[in-house]
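>> received
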Amino acid sequence: MESMFEVTENPILAELVINRVKRDTNGATVTFIGSLRGYSSGGNRVLYAECNSDKKMSEQQLRDVGEEIRTRWQLEDVSICHRVGRIEVGETIAVVAIAAPHRQEAFDACQYAVDRFKEFMVLREVLENQ
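>> returned
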């Protein structure tokens, strides 16, 4: 399978992202599934969120993150999918799947991917009574 770096307005099916990295040469697959929580960090009720990133530019940035992971950890099996547009509470915002021969590099690379895409994919929460 080939890696996936996708920005979409459609609901994300985590299993499709995860399946892109599975191979018999890997002993570990680490995934991150981020969902929109119902309360902000300040305790206010979240009605929904919006991510208005430019799709083409954001997909390139996700590919760049994938390349950073390939270089740093020598891993080929990296897939990242992120939502844009209106996202309802409970819906999946992002899925990261990293597969590697051993678990530690998969965990480290997955954490790195999440930290990196949060630098450029900005969610705006719409709060109750806002």
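>> The chain has a mean pLDDT of 95.
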